[in-house]
Amino acid sequence: MVWAVVALLALDSIVSTVLLLYSSKSAYLANGFPLFYLTLSLLSSTFQSIFDNDFQLTFSQHQKPKMLNFLLSLVLDADMAVQTSYTALKCMGSSMAFGLLLGTPLYGIRSVVCLVFPSLLLTVFCVSFMQLIAIRFFISIVRYIVMEPITFNMPLPYQIHSPTSEQMRTINRVVEARDPLLKYFAFFDLRRVALTDSARRKEVFSLSQPGGHARNWATLSTACVNVIKQVQLHLDEQSGRLFGGSIAVDNVGGSASGDASDLSDPLKIDREMLLMPVQARRQVYTSPVYDRHRKAVLEAPKRARPQTAWDKCVAKVSKVLSDEKYVVSPYDANLVILAIESLSMLIVYSYDEDRYGVVQKSLEPIIGQMLELIKSIDTYFRSRAAAAYSDAMDTTVRNMDVALFTAMDKIHVKFGPQLFKSLNLSPEQFRQIRSMCRSA
C-alpha cells in the first residue's frame, strides 16, 4: 500500500511536469532531451526522499502546538530548506550523470550541449527541490496527525487464563516486538507515559495480582535496559576495532584492552602509541618500529590555517553529499534515546507517585547499565581520536551521550546524592556521576 501511494505520487508529479513543459514556449524545451533530464530528476528525487526519510520517529517536542502553528513552523523551518537544497543538488547531479550515460546513445551530442543551459539546470533544481520539500512536508504532517495518537493499553492488574487478541496488544508485549516500526511506536508511547500521562504512570508503578508483583515496571524497565545494553556491546566492538584488537570486558565496571602483541602492523602501533601517556611517548626505544614512532609522534605540530567562510561552506556540502555510515544507526540511537528518557522520567516521577517502592528496588542495574553505556561511549571516543574517521559518523553517538548526561542529571537533582550512595556502585562509577551531574 505504501509503495502504491508513492508510485501514484511520483506519477502525478511526472504528468504535471510534462504538461507544464509542453505548455511552455521555451525554445530549449522544444526538443525531447531536456524533458528526458527533467523526468530523470523527478524519479531521482522521489526515490531519494523515500530512502533518505525512512520514517524514523524523531520527536523533539514534548508539548505539540496546534495544527496551524505546526504548519507555520514547517514553512519557516530554514534548516529543512537548506538540507533540502543540498539534497536537490545531489539529485540534480545524479540525474545529469544518468542523462549523460543514457541520453548520449539516444540523442547524441545534443544531450551534452543542453547541460550548458543555465535555464535547464535551474529548472531541474527547482523541480527536485519542490518534489523533496513536498514529501518532507507530507512525512511531517503524517507524523503529527497519524503517529501521535498511537497508544498502547497497559496490562490488566490481574492474570487472565485465556486472553483475547485485543487483551494481548499491550505496551509490555510491543516493547519486545521484533518488528522495528512497532517497537518504535511502543517506546515513543512509553516516553509519552513517562512525561505526560500520570494515569498510566500509576499503572506502571502498580502491583499485579495474584502475588503483588511489579510486572509492568519489571517488563518495561528490562526492555529499556536490554536496548541500552545491546548498543553498549556494539560500541565496545567498534572500540575494539579502532584499537586494533579485541576488547575484553571483565566485570560490571569493565576494562577495555587492545591486543598489541603484533608489532608488524604499523597502523596498529600508531593508534596505540597516541593513547599512551606523554612520558611513555618520550622514551627512547631500540626497536626500529618504536624509534619511528618516537620521531613521528614527537614531530613539531604545524600551525593550522584559519578556516574561511568558503572552507566552511565546502565542508558542509561535502558532509551532506557524503555517503558515510553511522557507527550506531539512527534507528538504534533513537530507540536508545527513547529508552533513556523513559527510564529517567519514570524514576523522577516515582519519587512522588511510586507508592510501593517498586522503582527504587531495581535502580541499581538500571543506573549501572546507563553508566556502562557512558563508559563505552567514552572508550569509543578515546580510541576514535587515533583513527581517521569523519565526525559525521559519530552524530548518533553524541546524541546518546547528551541524553545520558541529561537523564543522570535529572535523577541526581530529584533524589540528591543519597540515592547513589545507597546503591552498590563502584568508586569509578561514583566519579562518573560527580563528573556528569552539575548539582553533584
Protein described:
With 440 residues, this protein is mostly helical. The chain folds into 2 domains: 2-147, no CATH class; 165-239 and 324-436, no CATH class. Helices cover 67% and strands 0% of the residues. It contains 20 helices and no strands. It has helices at residues 2-23, 33-52, 67-75, 78-107, 110-113, 118-147, 165-168, 171-174, 180-195, 198-205, 215-243, 266-274, 278-281, 288-297, 309-321, 330-353, 363-384, 395-415, 417-422, 427-436. Helix 2 (33-52) runs parallel beside helix 6 (118-147). It is globular.
Mean pLDDT: 71
What spatial form do the alpha-carbon principal axes imply?
A: globular
Helix content: 55-70%
Helix-strand pattern: HHHHHHHHHHHHHHHHHHHH
User: Radius of gyration, rounded?
Assistant: 28 Å
- The number of distinct structural domains comes to 2
Number of helices: 20
Euclidean distance between termini CA atoms: 53 Å
How many individual β-strands?
Answer: 0
Strand fraction equals: under 5%
| Largest sheet composition | none
Low-pLDDT stretches: 23-30, 54-64, 245-269, 284-290
Derived from helix and strand composition plus strand pairing, the structural class reads mainly alpha
Secondary structure: elements and pairs:
Elements: H1 2-23, H2 33-52, H3 67-75, H4 78-107, H5 110-113, H6 118-147, H7 165-168, H8 171-174, H9 180-195, H10 198-205, H11 215-243, H12 266-274, H13 278-281, H14 288-297, H15 309-321, H16 330-353, H17 363-384, H18 395-415, H19 417-422, H20 427-436
Helix pairs in contact: 1-2, 2-4, 2-6, 4-6, 9-16, 11-16, 11-17, 12-14, 16-18, 17-18
